[in-house]
Amino acid sequence: MAAPVAKLALKGVHKRFGDKVVLDGVDIEVAPGKSLVIIGGSGQGKSVTLKIAIGLMRPDSGYVAVDGADTTELSQRARAENNRKFGMLFQGAALFDSLTIWENVAFRLLNADKVARKEAKARAIESLARVGLPASVAELYPIELSGGMQKRAGLARAVAATPDILFFDEPTTGLDPINADVINDLIVEQVKRLGCTAVSITHDMASARKIGDEIAFLYKGKILWRGPAAEIDRTGNPYVDQFVHGRADGPIRPEV
Amino acid sequence: MNPVQAVGRSTLGFLRQAGAVVIFAARGVAGLLGPPFFFSQFLRQLMAIGYLSLPVVGLTAVFTGAALALNIYTGGGRFNAEQIMPQIVALGITRELGPVLAALMLAGRVSAAIAAEIGAMRATEQIDAMETLSTDPFRYLVAPRLLAATLTTPLLTLVADIIGVAGGFLVATQSLQFSGPIYVQNTWNFLTSWDIVSGLIKAAVFGFIVALMGAYHGYTASGGARGVGRATTHAVVSAAILIFASDYVLTSLFSGKS
């Protein structure tokens, strides 16, 4: 029997900025309904991998496929259409300052799907409720929310249009441990509810263990190890081991 | 590096930048040619660029008109030609100073604001977020600003023309003993419709430049807060230089016409 088509695949992806090689032949496949977490130190290419996967950046070589179709060289219009399959929670939430929270959450519904404002608002409030935010925040502006609430609103926006693939860029960065755990729980809950595929990047191991079915370790632009999240503590790989346990001693030397 | 290399590198850099601006402008204009068009964004920009710029443009125009009247009266006195002051003020304001000064004030106020807003959106990944939400930032952010600035700058210039001529009128009648009705009649009889229309055409071009420079430098900003500051400065300076350069080109094109 043929293997099922990967929901998302990156094949032989290379990317460099000037002389600096950031991605050096990254191969990643994520099966439908699975959650992959990419871990790695700062500057190892995690964000670039995510941006290439979602089409915000083009690889120098290699390709990205969604549902088996190459999406590397899409026109602007085709890209917008393809992006309907995606939802993304950005590191700083990236809420639009000039719009209220409900307008942020309903942004795709209002501007891409042309849903009527009344219906879009109702769906936005429903989406906010799913991430534990009351309807009273709907009329507030992002600046009036705490960091944790902004992350929740960002998650509500990412899931509002029921995407097929959810991307999470450092979802717990900048949050206290309790709020970080709340966000992790919400991510797990929403991914399960939607039955979608998830790709996250983080260097927060608590988050990686909680939200990932699988973990991939990115080092110097290559996937050095990949396996089930439950096996992250017994990989036998000294690089992964050093990173997971946050030790200064080991083969990884932080760049200065 | 030898001087030839330096000149070559600067030239290539300039051409690369010019090409990038042209492509950016083409994408912005293309955003106006087909759906979706974000009308609410357009209305918001009409208000921000047009209506809210009225005070600064009006104040600039009234003082410029008044100062121009005094200078032309003084200069004209050397040839016993003080009486043609109303006509020269009207001509200077409508053909040159109205559109150029209105556009320069917009370069300071609007280009800077657009660059800072879009630059901050770039720095905080809001533009990336917009793309992931299936919305083309060129259609949502750039196209409405280009259209709003291109349409409102001629209207602001028309207001500047009227207020500028009124500034000259006030000085002439209050300080220089000109007769009010004769001043108005001389101005009215002298001006041709082309004097006004040519200034408004210039203003439309300047308005496009103002929005384009703000949007381009904001959109391409990088490097956090410092990058946004740099984008704002570049937007204002490049808009001002392009306004002067295009003013010369347009004035040359219009110079044969009356």
Descriptive keywords:
heterodimer, A: 256 residues, alpha/beta, four-stranded antiparallel beta sheet, B: 258 residues, mainly alpha, 9 helices
Please give the structural blueprint:
The complex is a heterodimer of chains A (256) and B (258).
Chain A: E1 8-17, E2 20-30, E3 35-39, H1 46-54, E4 61-66, E5 69-70, H2 76-82, E6 86-89, H3 101-105, H4 107-111, H5 117-130, H6 147-160, E7 165-169, H7 177-194, E8 197-202, H8 205-211, E9 214-219, E10 222-228, H9 238-244
Parallel strand pairs in A: 3-8, 3-9, 6-7, 7-8
Antiparallel strand pairs in A: 1-2, 1-4, 4-5, 9-10
Helix pairs in contact in A: 5-6, 6-7, 7-8
Chain B: H1 3-33, H2 39-50, H3 54-77, H4 85-123, H5 126-132, H6 137-174, H7 180-190, H8 193-219, H9 224-254
Helix pairs in contact in B: 1-6, 2-6, 3-4, 3-6, 4-6, 4-8, 4-9, 6-8, 8-9
- Indicate the mean pLDDT of chain A: 92
Element pattern of chain B in H and E: HHHHHHHHH
Reading the helices and strands of chain A in chain order gives EEEHEEHEHHHHEHEHEEH
**Number of discrete helical segments of chain B:** 9
Helix content range of chain A: 25-40%
- Biggest β-sheet strands, sense, barrel of chain B: none
Number of domains of chain A: 1
Radius of gyration of chain B, Cα only, in angstroms?
Answer: 21 Å
Strand content of chain B: under 5%
Secondary structure class of chain A reads alpha/beta
Structure report:
The complex is a heterodimer of chains A (256) and B (258). Chain A is an alpha/beta fold. Chain A has one domain: P-loop containing nucleotide triphosphate hydrolases (Rossmann fold). In chain A, 34% of the residues lie in helices and 24% in strands. In chain A, strands 6-7-8-3-9-10 form a six-stranded mixed β-sheet, with helices on both faces. In chain A, helix 5 crosses helix 6 (147-160). The radius of gyration of chain A is 18 Å and the shape is globular. Chain B is an all-alpha fold and 258 residues long. Chain B is elongated. Chain B is built from nine helices and no strands. The mean pLDDT of chain B is 94. Chain B starts with a helix and ends with a helix. In chain B, helix 3 packs antiparallel against helix 4 (85-123) and helix 8 runs antiparallel to helix 9 (224-254). Chain B has one domain. The A-B interface holds A 51, 54-56, 76, 79-81, 83-84, 86-88, 90-92, 94-97, 107-108, 111-112, 114, 157, 167 and B 36, 38, 120-121, 124-126, 128-136, 138, 140.
